């Protein structure tokens, strides 16, 4: 890490901003929530029930319109892509996807994209590109079109950067999302992820980085002045906003007076033209919570996870924030996030960047001691925040939300008597793939395409995220969620080499248990030099690196040159619950596919030119670290050795 000048607010005055304006820049103003009277009939809570939960009216309407207006055409287009690669699909596959068995026979597909910092954002994007029917190469590979056919898509941590940037930018293609388009000719264009600028140290010059630090901290001051606690998560939000929210491009990234995505709200995604025409899967972002009254004996301690599996998992969608977990089973309107009663309503709190930041807020993991925290790459930001906006006694290492659920579910809900919620990275309980929203029974998800770029071993995924979800669903919330069987420990995962290729879980289960298509970042296509296992602490990628990762990921997701039947096998898995609904028998190539790709399938000799990269001894302690600051990681390791 480059030494960093800690410049304080003086620098902004020195650069020509009058002192009175410091903290009231355009970005600071746009980042500040507003307070006003609640609209007539305002309802703070929606209770969802505990076993087969109810959806919000907004979500129900979106899903039903997407299913009737968009998905029949999307499935047909996907089917044509698969058929072009394989002409011996069983007839039920075509009849289901062509709509010949009626609307209720279509599969309901959810895609989940994991945490793991930039690596996960890039790997997830590469997989989505392979599923994107708009890309002719993906269409010709026989995998394109699944993205268009999905009903839901969820993301957490690095996956939330990918998902949120994608939907707020109005669902561009992946190359455009990563590298930007039209931003120099049209200020409304999208500047891309700007991955070649480090998230925390965008310049190579310590003085300029000091100016940057000061700018991002200053941008959260007005929110504090308006009566809301601010923490490192707000500062992180302002850093992430420069990459994963509209408003920044390579020409203006250095401009400290720019808005840089402040004011762009998660609820506003509802106003993008793709969302308004039901043209994308319904997006959901996941975050964990820490609480003073949590039961630490329910942590997966051998994995070093900080959040007990019993803590509620929160989800953010365009309409609502809350939890389907039976302990809370309550939601609040997204547009009024920050509100805690029905008379005074807050708006503008649901900044898209703050939600990305909450889902990837793992600085509490570096807070082993204050010294370690201060020596992490976020250390300068903690110090500057503490100096600029003193908040004595405030915990600064979590994302702080006025608790909309104060007084709800007393006795079961652990934060019932807390004025504020402390949200953290969605993977801190070990569930680094955001599967939970897709297991909500009313959502009726038949099949989940789970993208896993967790750093377990050698920065590859080893499957432990699935074990964590199995634990939570089986041991804690069996009445609310159902999850297909996965191995109960890592040795079984390793013995069967389940991360050396895509694997189907739940082949023998029945609805409402979904079938899971597991797409691990766990192997290298035959003969290639591995490029997708970069460290989670890498916060800067050249365009060439991103492109190389996209290209390798494309081969991993299409299995081009490895298994020519894979696109057909994927289609067999996608329709399998729908097949059961119409009482058809699995047959033909689908039988062969299930023998090959199912966990527990009869043909375990998956001999197709990849090898698992995770069979080496695991580094259990580090498995949950979705994104640990580099300096803290070094100290943490030093302490452990
Ligand atoms: C970029 O601008 C050109 C010219 O205005 C337009 O045709 C094109 O659709 C734009 N690209 C995107 C991705 O919006
Ligand atoms: C972000 O910018 C894109 C490209 O100009 C635009 O289509 C989209 O509507 C914007 N998103 C929001 C939430 O304003
Ligand atoms: C969507 O846009 C309309 C018209 O500009 C505006 O009135 C409405 O508040 C916006 N909704 C959201 C959720 O941003
Ligand atoms: C904490 O969890 C453990 C394990 O599930 C349980 O035995 C114990 O009773 C719990 N403690 C409290 C205070 O709920
Ligand atoms: C998760 O499951 C494994 C295997 O069944 C078990 O060893 C572990 O204790 C479980 N952890 C929790 C927190 O339930
Ligand atoms: C409602 O919440 C606001 C804070 O947003 C608070 O100032 C006000 O006193 C509360 N009103 C009631 C009636 O509790
Ligand atoms: C914040 O500043 C106060 C006053 O200088 C100091 O006592 C405290 O230790 C600082 N806290 C952190 C987390 O740096
Ligand atoms: C570090 O963690 C402790 C214990 O949870 C907490 O009291 C403290 O506020 C945290 N430090 C910061 C800077 O957030
Ligand atoms: C949940 O309820 C919906 C309608 O409210 C129903 O269609 C669905 O079958 C139910 N699912 C389960 C698993 O009970
Ligand atoms: C389609 O995907 C391939 C493989 O990653 C990529 O090389 C190509 O640029 C993409 N095409 C477009 C138009 O995005
Ligand atoms: C699934 O069922 C098939 C056929 O009954 C059986 O051979 C296979 O072992 C089962 N797999 C699992 C994981 O139970
Ligand atoms: C098992 O799979 C391998 C690789 O796909 C294939 O070569 C072999 O023929 C299969 N064996 C059986 C019995 O299906």
From TrEMBL:
Keyword Glycoprotein carried by entry: yes
UniProt xrefs under Pfam families? PLA2_B
The similarity annotation says: Belongs to the lysophospholipase family.
Q: Which GO terms describe its biological process?
A: glycerophospholipid catabolic process
Q: Which organism is it from?
A: Heliocybe sulcata
Could you identify this protein by its name?
Lysophospholipase
Q: Name one GO cellular component term.
A: cytosol
Going by the record, the broad EC class of this enzyme is hydrolase
Name the Enzyme Commission number(s) assigned to this protein. Answer: 3.1.1.5
Q: Which SMART domains match?
A: PLAc (SM00022)
Any GO molecular function? phosphatidylcholine lysophospholipase activity
What's in the keyword line of the UniProt record?
Glycoprotein, Hydrolase, Lipid degradation, Lipid metabolism, Signal
**For this protein, what reaction is catalysed?**
a 1-acyl-sn-glycero-3-phosphocholine + H2O = sn-glycerol 3-phosphocholine + a fatty acid + H(+)
How far does the signal peptide extend, from start to end residue? 1-23
What InterPro entries does the entry give?
Acyl_Trfase/lysoPLipase, LysoPLipase_cat_dom
Q: Tell me which residues make up the PLA2c domain.
A: 37-604
Domain of life of the native organism? Eukaryota
């Amino acid at each position: 890490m480059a030494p960093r000048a800690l410049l304080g607010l003086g620098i902004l005055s020195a650069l020509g901003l009058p002192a009175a304006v410091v903290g009231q820049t355009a970005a600071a103003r746009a980042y500040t929530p507003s307070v006003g009277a609640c609209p007539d009939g305002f309802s703070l809570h929606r209770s969802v029930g505990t076993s087969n939960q109810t959806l919000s009216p907004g979500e129900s309407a979106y899903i039903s319109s997407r299913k009737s207006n968009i998905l029949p055409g999307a499935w047909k287009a996907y089917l044509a892509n698969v058929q072009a690669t394989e002409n011996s699909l069983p007839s039920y596959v075509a009849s289901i996807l062509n709509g010949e068995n009626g609307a209720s026979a279509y599969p309901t597909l959810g895609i989940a994209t994991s945490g793991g910092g930039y690596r996960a954002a890039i790997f997830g994007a590469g997989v989505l590109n392979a599923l994107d029917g708009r890309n002719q190469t993906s269409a010709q590979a026989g995998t394109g079109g699944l993205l268009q056919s999905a009903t839901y898509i969820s993301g957490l941590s690095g996956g939330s950067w990918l998902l949120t940037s994608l939907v707020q930018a109005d669902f561009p293609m992946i190359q455009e999302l990563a590298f930007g388009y039209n931003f120099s000719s049209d200020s409304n264009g999208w500047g891309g992820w700007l991955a070649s600028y480090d998230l925390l140290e965008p310049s190579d010059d310590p003085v300029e980085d000091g100016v940057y630090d000061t700018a991002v901290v200053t941008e959260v001051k007005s929110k504090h002045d308006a009566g809301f606690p601010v923490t490192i998560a707000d500062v992180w939000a302002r850093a992430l906003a420069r990459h994963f929210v509209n408003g920044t491009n390579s020409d203006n990234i250095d401009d400290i007076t720019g808005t840089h995505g402040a004011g762009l709200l998660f609820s506003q995604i509802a106003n993008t033209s793709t969302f308004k025409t039901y043209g994308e899967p319904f997006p959901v972002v996941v975050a964990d919570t820490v609480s003073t009254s949590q039961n630490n004996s329910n942590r997966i301690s051998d994995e070093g996870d900080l959040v007990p599996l019993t803590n509620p998992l929160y989800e953010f969608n365009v309409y609502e924030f809350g939890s389907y977990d039976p302990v809370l089973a309550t939601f609040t309107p997204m547009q009024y996030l920050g509100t805690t009663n029905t008379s005074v309503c807050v708006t503008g709190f649901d900044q898209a960047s703050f939600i990305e930041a909450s889902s990837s807020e793992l600085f509490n993991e570096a807070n082993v001691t204050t010294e370690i925290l201060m020596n992490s790459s976020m250390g300068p930001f903690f110090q500057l925040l503490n100096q600029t906006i003193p908040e004595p006694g405030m915990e600064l290492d979590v994302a702080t939300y006025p608790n909309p659920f104060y007084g709800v579910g007393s006795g079961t809900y652990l934060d019932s008597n807390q004025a504020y919620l402390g949200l953290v990275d969605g993977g801190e309980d070990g569930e680094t793939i955001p599967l939970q929203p897709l297991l909500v029974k009313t959502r009726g998800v038949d099949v989940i395409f789970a993208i896993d770029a967790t750093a377990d071993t050698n920065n590859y995924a080893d499957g432990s995220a699935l074990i964590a979800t199995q634990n939570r669903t089986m041991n804690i919330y069996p009445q609310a969620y159902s999850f297909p069987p996965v191995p109960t420990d890592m040795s079984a995962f390793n013995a069967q080499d389940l991360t050396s290729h895509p694997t189907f879980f739940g082949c023998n289960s029945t609805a409402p248990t979904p079938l899971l298509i597991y797409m691990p970042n766990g192997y290298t296509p035959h003969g290639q030099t591995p490029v997708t296992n970069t460290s989670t602490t890498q916060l800067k990628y050249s365009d060439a690196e991103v492109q190389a990762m996209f290209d390798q990921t494309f081969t991993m997701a299409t299995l081009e040159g490895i298994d020519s039947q894979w696109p057909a096998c994927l289609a067999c898995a996608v329709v399998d619950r729908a097949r059961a609904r119409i009482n058809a028998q699995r047959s033909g190539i689908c039988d062969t596919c299930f023998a090959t790709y199912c966990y527990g399938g009869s043909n375990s000799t998956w001999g197709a030119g990849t090898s698992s990269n995770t069979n080496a001894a695991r580094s259990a302690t580090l498995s949950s670290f979705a994104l640990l600051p580099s300096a803290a990681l070094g100290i943490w390791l030093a302490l452990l050795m």
